[in-house]
Amino acid sequence: MLPRVSVIIPTYNRLGMLSELMEALVQQTRKDFEVIVVNDGGERVDNLKEYYPELDLTIIDLTENVKHVQARNIGVSFAKGEFIMLIDDDDLIVSTHLETMIEKIKGADLVYSDVEIVQYEKRNGVREATGRHLFAYELDLPAMRKFSTFVPSGSLYRSCLHDRIGKFDPEMKNYWDWDFFLRVSEKFKVARSAVAGVLYDFSAENSNQSKDLASMRFYLDRLSEKHRLGNLPTKNFWLLLEESEVKKREATSNIVWNGMPFISRLQRLGRLEEA
Question: What is the pTM of this model?
Answer without folding.
Answer: 0.94
